[in-house]
Amino acid sequence: MAKISTAQQERVFAALDSFQIEVPSWGFANTGTRFGKFIQPAAATSIEEKFADAGEVNRLTGVAPTIALHVLWDLPKGVSDVPEIKRLEEKYGVKSGSINPNLFQGQGYKFGAMANPDPEIRECAVQHLLESVELAKALGSRDISIWDADGSNYPGTQSIRRRIEWTGEALEKTHAALAPNQRMLVEYKPFEPAFYHTDIADWGMALALAHRAGPQAKVLVDTGHHYAGQNIEQIVAWLLHLDALGGFHFNDRKYADDDLTIGSIDPYQVFRIFHELLSDPRGAADVAFMIDQSHNLKGKLEAAVQTVVTAQEIYARAALVDRDLLSGLQDKCDLVAAEEHFRGCFWTDVRPIAQEWRRSKGLAADPLTELRVSGYVEETAKVRAARNAGSVASYA
Length: 396
Ligand code: AFD
Ligand code: MN
Ligand code: MN
Hints:
The chain has helices at 6-18, 47-61, 71-74, 82-92, 119-139, 160-176, 203-213, 232-241, 267-278, 300-320, 323-331, 335-346, 351-360, 367-374, 376-389, and strands at residues 23-24, 32-33, 36-37, 66-70, 95-100, 143-147, 151-152, 183-187, 197-198, 217-222, 245-250, 288-291. By secondary structure, the protein is of the alpha/beta class. The longest helix is centred in the N-terminal third of the chain and has 21 residues, at 119-139. Bound molecules: alpha-D-allopyranose and manganese (II) ion (2 copies). Alpha-D-allopyranose binds at residues 100, 147, 187, 189, 222, 249, 257, 259, 292.
């Protein structure tokens, strides 16, 4: 393997200096699949414990200073929860990040939320979105990250066209409430929980809805929300080209929206996505990196640290690419030389450089090992085990 040049080392350090990724509050609590949950003794059982765990991930990695919050799960009392959240931010050293409305759990949303045929239900959804915007303002959060679970399960049971209009209206009203420094991220997902059509099924629908909503609306790419074989880095390139990319929910998938650890199935795809970002002439500075994973089998904290470190190190590999050299080889159609440089960077072990960067920042060189020797998980399990034992039993 080619030795890493000084220029490459400098690019990697610069990339690691700019790299930040947001952890999801729901990644620390017990979650499961539709077949049940396997309760973890050390899982977070309160918003304070979620902040504590997020704080530990940031203490170990130094690159995860914000936590994504889910409105109903983390802020059940709305704005009256804000003082407590501010206290937790101070205590654990992590700030509130993106605010995630919940338009998928309410019983009234059985046939949809923003696109429910009943105008009263649609209005409830809009009110929830507007409350979420106000919550974000009170917390100083820039992004309201909207995942629309609406759709239908059988052909002919709903009007796709009328639902487009209803969805557009709701997002337009939400956009109108944004503060000048806020953004609305429109997430797309081709299926689940709706299994015939999803109202926002792909990047084109999300883009059209974002354009209709207004200039502060952008598209959110959840890497698990694509059909098998889709070229996600091409979607990323298009959204960057259109200045329409708001951010990512990172995870990996083998079959569906599996929310597996980033890079665990296809790390080369993550590298190709990061290459598009690092190649963006505008620097892709405003593209939010968020994790959307909630591990059922791995330990919550271990998986969170592993995820952050994996994302960081694949980003470092993408920073190895000499984009001027690559561009020249592309112009000459020197295919093998271009590919050898590109994939050679992917295959380069950047862990030594990453460890050197961490030491230069006073961080543990190997956060995962540091977590394991810290005893944090064992200590929290002692405190939380009883509460977790009382949680919903796993599928019998
Ligand atoms: C689920 C959905 C979607 C959403 C997330 C948080 O598939 O990705 O962003 O929950 O609400 O993963
Ligand atoms: Mn997501
Ligand atoms: Mn998802």
